[in-house]
Amino acid sequence: MSVSEPAGPTTPTVLVVDPDRAVLEAMRRSLADRGYRTLSARSSGEALELLRAEPVALVLAEAAGDGCDGLALLDHVRAHCPETVVVLTADYGSVEAAMQAVRQGAFDYLPKPVVDDELCMVVARALDHQRVLAENRRLRSAAMPMAFEGIVGGDWRMVRVFELIEAVADSRATVLITGESGTGKSLVARAIHRRSRRREGPFVEVSCGALPEMLLETELFGHVRGAFTDAVGDRQGKFAAADGGTIFLDEISAASAALQVKLLRVLQERTFEPVGSNRTVSVDVRVIVASNRDLWGEVEAGRFRRDLYYRVNVVNIALPPLRERMGDIMLLAEHFLRRFARENGKAVVGFTDRAARALEAYHWPGNVRELENCIERAVVLSRTGRIDLEDLPEELSSLALAGSAWPTSSGGSTSSGRSPTLAEALAGPEKQIIRAALRAHGGSRTATARALGINRTTLYKKMKKYGLLGKGRAD
After folding, report:
1. What is the CATH number of domain 324-471?
2. Spatial separation of the C-alpha atoms in residues 390 and 328, rounded to whole Å
3. Are the beta carbons of 264 and 305 closer than 8 angstroms?
4. Under the phi-then-psi rule, with left for phi > 0, alpha for psi from -120 to 50, and beta for the rest, what region is 346?
5. Dihedral pair phi/psi, residue 452, rounded to 5°
6. d(Cα 349, Cα 388) in Å, to the nearest integer?
7. What is the dihedral of CA 42, 44, 50, 52, to 10 degrees?
8. Contact yes or no for 176/296 (Cβ under 8 A)
9. 418: DSSP letter
């Protein structure tokens, strides 16, 4: 093992590993002449000792040789040194191993004999790549103050949501939170409560869509003994339990016509009668409601009372779907990564470049909740220091690996050896996005087209183009 003296305090350190002393010294000298600080080792064992002793920016190792196993070094780096980039060298007989290593996360490989200019060019490119990733991580970390009461987001639409929460928190106004399932409506309701003067009072959450009509009425207003067959005693309802605090009614559109009448009275007068009782109960409660349906559309369809709509829609906070705030995907992913790594005692500190691209390319029909579940699964399954494609669900990994979804480190090519056209490069991901959306919406073309932001005719043409007509249903 040997080391060259650094050219300065911020000079990148490159660890060169090769069993051939002459080749090792030639590569080490070439890099040292370009200003890099170098370490050298002639075996994987020596290289591991150096990696454990000090931080290394780049490992340059032979893919397979006498006493040198580049794939094993790559596994160690991914598990224990996620900030380090790996470049492999390969003679004719080990090119396949080097290509496999690139697929597993190595930055690139160089065929032997290594040309000095090509060596220095690839090393410079790899280190530039690492600097860009480090800067991205730094910027995302700097953006973390945009976590507002547990809600993470830097997108301007989320900043507007934070401003609305702050503005309405201390008022008595009823707030309507709208957005697709999984966008975080419950988090927004809790944030409003925590920012209000009622923060010391109870916060009571009720999912109106989870209970049948009779049980929901009892759940909200309580009942007295004998009100119905199983009412063996008095029971306090959620409105009474929330007295002095906040009640959050999720999926308000699921309330029956009869229940909507009672809700309207509570919102207007803050009074109600428990089921089976003539006694009027008064409560001091802040009401927040939420819906994943278009409530005005429900009004026009005759399923939701117009007067109740106007009563609940005093202040509307609309949450954007995750696919419309693409810049927040990695911000959220890293937030969930830190949380689940801590909860599971896993030393997982980041994402590989291709895993990050897969997360950002997916359309997230389940929104933030789906992303949260995805990252929890990835952390539990990960065997290295960074989340990679194989740790992600199939719909994401297949999207990333489909056709020419993204160019390789060598630039990418078609089977004929030429660079793919833009249409060819986009075809694979588009097919996988449509396939995943169809699966997420049970094959419904109407729901799929709506989720993808296209009309049904366009969806039909694309399904026909990609041979997916058997995957959906005409509805």
Report:
1. 1.10.8.60
2. 23
3. yes
4. beta
5. -85, -5
6. 12
7. -170
8. no
9. S
Cα torsion through 167, 364, 327, 383, rounded to 10: 120
Q: What is the rounded CA–CA span in Å between residue 323 and residue 447?
A: 15
More confident residue, 42 or 1: 42
Q: What is the mean pLDDT of residues 11-35?
A: 90
d(CA 254, CA 295): 11
pLDDT tens-place string over residues 197-215: 999 999 999 998 888 877 8
Q: Tell me the two tokens of residue 407.
A: 């160019």
| pLDDT tens sequence across 158-186 | 888 999 999 999 898 999 999 999 999 99
In angstroms, the CA 75 to CA 81 distance is 10
Does a cis peptide bond (omega within 30 degrees of 0) precede residue 113? yes
How far apart CA 116 and CA 181 sit, in angstroms, is 56
Return phi, psi of residue 235, to 5°. Answer: -140, 130
- DSSP letter assigned to residue 42: S
Tell me how many degrees the CA angle 151-155-160 measures, rounded to the nearest 5.
75
Q: Which CATH number fits domain 2-142: 3.40.50.2300, 3.40.50.300, 3.40.1160.10, 3.30.1950.10?
A: 3.40.50.2300
Amino acid at 89: T
Helices then strands (H, E): number in the chain? 19, 17
Amino acid (one-letter) located at 77: V
